[in-house]
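Retro notes (design track)

What went well: tokenization of the new backbones is finally stable.
What didn't: we kept losing track of which sequence belonged to which structure.
Fix going forward: every design gets posted as structure first, then sequence, in one message. First example under the new rule, 356 residues:
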């Protein structure tokens, strides 16, 4: 056999390099033509072995070219529970209803506004103990976990109706941290407001500057704004990521995190910046985003996808009421940022501004 040619089996592609080139071009087209807003009113609901009702908002299965990541919305009817299962990391935010989640046999209570972290391969299930539906959004990197063959999805038990006296099988909540010391649950009313802290720092700096100016022989001082006003409020949930604050409230999420709730006051827009993939779920209000200079309206129940490329974006509240959005980020973004400066976050305007 010559040194230039060899046999190729039926299981081996003849030109894998050409396939790589073609896939790269397809990916480029996909992220540049990506849909941006998932409409909550247009969801396709399904029933699964694990879920009574679940619909995908963001993910490749519904046309969004994600990084193997997804955002879904699920409903647990009153008097029922989800299936018992385990898989990669999951982040959950309770939109409505009340109940508890059992993670590795330990109970954590939740209500509207609670954020939950399910650690990697921790078995879990959610119970609705109220009289209304439990509605929640859930994020994971399921497709990525399965693609790299390091993740698993194991169904340990089906969904179903709660049996009489079921709560007695689960001891009452004993804190929001698990045995290794990781935070599992945080209620929104307990989340610190980063923006409030930043404003307090600004005010303290202003007072100090005024005092210094009063002793500067009439010379005007210059003071750099180290704490720009980015949002009306920034409630820290799992934190980390691109947040100016390193606070994480004890959460240890890596592959998927619900980092913050952003609140915008009426007639304002957020700071303007570029980065790779992230998702916003609209909890409250109406508004719009400018994504790479294109206008996209949204309302409560919608989700906004910043695709996995350097995407310039800014979020607007043109209404007379506040808006609140839940920010979800995926850790794969931070794997690539140190590899190429082209993926590092860029701030085009650090401060939020009024929009009369």
């Amino acid at each position: 056999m010559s040194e230039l040619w060899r046999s190729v089996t039926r299981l081996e592609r003849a030109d894998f390099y050409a396939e790589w080139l073609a896939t790269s071009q397809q990916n480029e087209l996909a992220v540049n033509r990506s849909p941006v807003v998932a409409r909550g009113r247009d969801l396709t609901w399904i029933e699964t072995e694990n879920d009574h009702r679940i619909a995908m908002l963001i993910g490749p299965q519904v046309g969004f070219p994600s990084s193997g990541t997804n955002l879904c919305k699920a409903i647990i009817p009153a008097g029922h529970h989800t299936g018992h299962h385990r898989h990669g990391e999951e982040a959950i935010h309770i939109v409505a209803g009340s109940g508890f989640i059992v993670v590795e046999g330990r109970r954590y209570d939740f209500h509207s506004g609670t954020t939950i972290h399910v650690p990697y391969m921790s078995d879990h299930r959610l119970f609705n103990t109220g009289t209304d539906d439990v509605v929640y959004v859930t994020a994971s990197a399921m497709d990525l976990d399965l693609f790299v063959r390091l993740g698993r999805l194991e169904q340990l038990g089906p969904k179903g109706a709660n049996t009489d006296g079921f709560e007695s099988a689960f001891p009452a909540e004993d804190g929001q941290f698990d045995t290794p010391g990781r935070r599992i649950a945080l209620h929104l009313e307990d989340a610190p407001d980063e923006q409030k802290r930043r404003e307090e720092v600004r005010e303290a700096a202003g007072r100090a500057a005024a005092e210094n100016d009063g002793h500067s022989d009439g010379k005007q001082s210059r003071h750099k704004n180290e704490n720009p006003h980015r949002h009306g409020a920034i409630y820290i949930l799992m934190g980390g990521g691109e947040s100016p604050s390193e606070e994480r409230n004890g959460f240890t999420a890596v592959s998927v995190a619900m980092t913050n709730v952003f609140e915008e006051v009426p007639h304002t827009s957020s700071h303007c910046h570029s980065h790779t993939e992230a998702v916003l779920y609209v909890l409250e209000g109406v508004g719009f985003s400018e994504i790479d200079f294109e206008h996209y309206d949204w309302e409560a129940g919608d989700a906004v996808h910043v695709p996995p490329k350097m995407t310039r974006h800014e979020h607007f509240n043109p209404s007379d009421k506040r808006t609140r959005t839940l920010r979800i980020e995926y850790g794969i973004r931070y794997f690539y940022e140190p590899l190429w400066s082209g993926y590092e976050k860029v701030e085009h305007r650090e401060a939020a501004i009024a929009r009369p």
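Added context from the reviewer: Residues 37-190 form a domain with the Jelly Rolls fold (CATH 2.60.120.10).
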